[in-house]
């Protein structure tokens, strides 16, 4: 958000009179306009929709929607959940079902297009050769970290899920060394505990693979490789369909790269489960 406001300040002298009206209104009402339509914003300021679109393009956005998404992604770290719920568009009938699915499809497609093949291959190599793989995610992100840890532990040894149960996290990471890797899921609103753990691990030489949102400039320093994911949602919480899809790809790629080790691990796991874990129906 600081970057957006700074950009308004830097370009203010180049704006037309109408564009300055928009800039002033945006600076004072970011939370209010993050979820309003182009028409609503133009009416509130007293300018035409064309003027708003030209203003967006003056800031190097393709249009109003792109600027609005940037504002939304920035204020996610500042707006509380009740406000997010209030700001969300109301749906009727089956529109919510359709919009929810389409939103996730769009997130997955956007995330796919943003991936760097060299970075992905480096991530696969890091995870495949690491002595230990630590997996970190707090609050909502814990669900993805648990999924990643459970799948990885089926195909390789020494996968360690950082759970911080009873504030045990110092002991969970104290043995980390430079030949280890940490897969971290860090999305707005950012967990202070997560950044504390990542800072310590990075200082110890652990490679950090960071799943995060598209606007990651604020927390970029915590990761060695950044995997940006679209997490927009029709609800008050982030959608994790895209990072889950990317996790599935990495798990499949690692299993394929280390086929024999993966097979051996799966056979050992299956031998344990066959002793009575399932009902056998």
Distance between the termini: 55 Å
Order of helices and strands: HHHHHHHHHEHEHEHEEHH
General form: elongated
Mean pLDDT, all residues: 85
Biggest sheet character: 5 strands, parallel
Provide the β-strand percentage band. 5-15%
**Which strand order does the major sheet show?**
2-1-3-4-5
Please state the structural category: alpha/beta
CA radius of gyration: 22 Å
Number of strands: 5
Low-confidence stretches: none
Topology:
Layout: H1 2-11, H2 17-28, H3 30-33, H4 38-45, H5 49-58, H6 64-75, H7 81-87, H8 95-114, H9 117-129, E1 133-137, H10 142-155, E2 159-162, H11 169-173, E3 181-186, H12 192-203, E4 207-213, E5 225-229, H13 241-257, H14 259-273
Parallel strand pairs: 1-2, 1-3, 3-4, 4-5
Helix pairs in contact: 4-5, 8-13, 9-13, 10-13, 13-14
Write up this protein:
The protein has 281 residues and is an alpha/beta fold. It is 57% helix and 10% strand. The chain contains 14 helices and five strands. Strands 2-1-3-4-5 form a five-stranded parallel β-sheet, with helices on both faces. Strand 1, helix 10 and strand 2 form a beta-alpha-beta unit. Helix 10 (142-155) runs parallel beside helix 13. The protein starts with a helix and ends in an 8-residue tail after the last helix.
């Amino acid at each position: 958000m600081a970057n957006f406001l700074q950009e308004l300040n830097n370009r203010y002298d180049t704006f037309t009179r109408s564009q300055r009206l928009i800039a002033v209104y945006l600076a004072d009402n970011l939370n209010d306009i993050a979820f309003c339509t182009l028409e609503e914003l133009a009416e509130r300021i007293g300018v035409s929709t064309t003027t708003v679109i030209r203003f967006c393009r003056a800031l190097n956005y393709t249009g109003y929607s792109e600027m609005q998404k940037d504002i939304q992604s920035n204020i996610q770290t500042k707006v509380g959940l009740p406000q997010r719920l209030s700001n969300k568009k109301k749906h009727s009938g089956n529109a919510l079902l359709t919009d929810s699915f389409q939103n996730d499809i769009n997130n997955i497609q956007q995330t796919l297009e943003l991936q760097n093949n060299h970075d992905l291959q480096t991530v696969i190599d890091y995870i495949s050769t690491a002595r230990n793989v630590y997996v970190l995610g707090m609050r909502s992100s814990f669900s993805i970290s648990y999924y990643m840890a459970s799948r990885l532990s089926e195909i390789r040894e020494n996968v360690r899920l950082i759970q911080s149960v009873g504030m045990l996290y110092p002991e969970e990471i104290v043995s980390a060394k430079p030949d280890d890797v940490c897969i971290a899921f860090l999305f707005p609103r950012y967990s202070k505990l997560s950044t504390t753990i990542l800072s310590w691990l990075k200082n110890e030489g652990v490679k950090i693979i960071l799943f995060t949102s598209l606007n990651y400039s604020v927390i970029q320093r915590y990761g060695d490789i950044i995997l940006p994911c679209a997490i927009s949602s029709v609800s008050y919480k982030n959608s994790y369909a895209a990072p889950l899809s990317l996790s599935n790809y990495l798990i499949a790629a690692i299993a394929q790269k280390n086929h024999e080790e993966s097979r051996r691990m799966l056979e050992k796991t299956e031998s344990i489960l066959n002793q009575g874990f399932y009902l056998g129906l």
